[in-house]
Amino acid sequence: MQNNVLEYLESTVKRFPDKIAFANEKTGITFKEVYDQGRAVGTFLYKQGIYKQPVVVFMKKHPKAIAAFFGVLYGGDFYVPFDEEMPIFRMELILKNLNPKAVICDEASKNIMDRIDYDVNIYLYDEIIRTSIDNGVIKDIRKAGIDTDPVYVVFTSGSTGIPKGVVGCHRGVIDYIDNLSEVLKFNENTVFGNQAPLYFDACLRELYSTLKFGAATYIIPKSLFMFPLKLVEFLNEI
Question: Which fold has domain 6-11+20-237?
């Protein structure tokens, strides 16, 4: 029985290492790249003393942001997705509620973080993926994990205006993906078009089904949301 969502990736990377896992209209990232970058991020976080902690992933909607989620999991932590469209006051409320020790950013989001009234360590994704992978650390983290460890926390708007976190654990995500994929018959030839923001749990079906089957997820450009004909053309191309 699987206990960790990363087991999906570790099985699939053996079968389809060079296949594109996640992509947008300009670039893609293979399963091997997701695997290697994820373990590098996990090694980095653990050696910074960040373990079993919330880690904010604040990056533009990009294949690297998805890989960052899995890197956080490799470190034995759980990810909290932020988005550049979130108002700064909302991000401040979430940060003060969570009290994270780390935020993973790209260059653009780092500039936004510099304006936020919250003191936290900010790490650039493109820098920390250069960390030498410590397989011993990754193995020890996995041994210590259990299936009820959290995978993510996503925040709702909150009926009172105060963001409220919703936690998803490994067992919950695995059961959801296994049952969903049995009904919808996903396989390695499935191509998902991702439209939901990465800070909504609605994106789970694409991200983790892709890992499970060696499928592919393409991030649909927001510019196409209002143009159905162009959207269909994009979907046909992928």
Answer: Rossmann fold (3.40.50)
Residues 6+ apart with CB under 8 A from 46: 75, 76, 134, 137, 141
| CA atoms within a 13 Å half-sphere pointing along the CA-CB vector of 6 | 30
Structure tokens at 124: 């650039």
Tokens standing for 36? 């290697």
pTM, full prediction? 0.93
113-151 b/e with 16+ CB inside 10 Å = b? beebebeeeebebeebbebebbeebbeebbeebebebbb
Sign of CA dihedral 134, 29, 60, 10: negative
* pLDDT tens digits, one per residue of 180-213: 999 999 999 999 999 888 988 889 999 999 999 9
> Which strand (E) or helix (H) includes residue 54?
strand 54-58
SS3 210: helix
